Structures are given as structure tokens and as C-alpha cells.
């Protein structure tokens, strides 16, 4: 049976993006490494956006009559 890969939390992905930025800001990084880190960062941003979209769909809105409904 294949192990299901654990999904990273939004906080973990943001920390990873911060690390990518630090690497890109380094003076001794090669152009090739810069492109690779940039590409990885863009993939992380897409994953972050997808996770945020899923969370937004689950957010509930309190109606005037005190009932809850999912936001659209």
C-alpha cells in the first residue's frame, strides 16, 4: 500500500517560501539555481492559493437570524 504524502500546512509552505527568498537574495547564487528556486517557489505559491481557496469555501457566514451558511 502506498503511503499518502502528508499535505503541508499553509504556515509550513510560507516558511519554505521565506527560505526560497533568502536563497534568491544571496550574492553567490548561480543563474541556474535562481531559476530552479524561483520555479519551486511558484509551485509553492500555487499550492498556497489552492489551500486558501479551500479554506475560504469552508468559512461560514452568520446570517441575521443567527443561522450559519457557507460563504460563496
What's a concise summary of this model?
By secondary structure, the chain is mostly helical. It contains two helices and two strands; from the N terminus they run H-H-E-E. A hairpin with a 5-residue loop joins strand 1 and strand 2.
Comma- or semicolon-separated keywords:
72 residues, mainly alpha, two-stranded antiparallel sheet, 2 strands
Structure description:
- It is built from two helices and two strands; from the N terminus they run ααββ.
- With 72 residues, the chain is mainly alpha-helical.
- A two-stranded antiparallel ribbon has the order 1-2.
- Strand 1 and strand 2 (68-70) form a beta hairpin.
- The radius of gyration is 18 Å and the shape is rod-shaped.
- 0% of the residues are buried.
- The model has no long low-confidence stretch (mean pLDDT 84).
Outline the secondary-structure elements.
Layout: H1 10-25, H2 31-58, E1 60-62, E2 68-70
Antiparallel strand pairs: 1-2
Helix pairs in contact: 1-2
Spatial separation of the terminal alpha carbons = 38 Å
| Sheet/helix structural class | mainly alpha
- Helical region count? 2
**Fraction of residues in H or I helices:** 55-70%
**Strand portion, in percent?**
5-15%
Strand order of the largest sheet: 1-2
Helices and strands, in N-to-C order? HHEE
Low-confidence stretches: none
According to DSSP, the number of beta strands is 2
Q: Give the integer mean of the pLDDT values.
A: 84
Instruction: Assign an overall shape.
Output: rod-shaped
Rg on CA atoms, Å: 18 Å
- Main sheet, how many strands, which sense, barrel? 2 strands, antiparallel
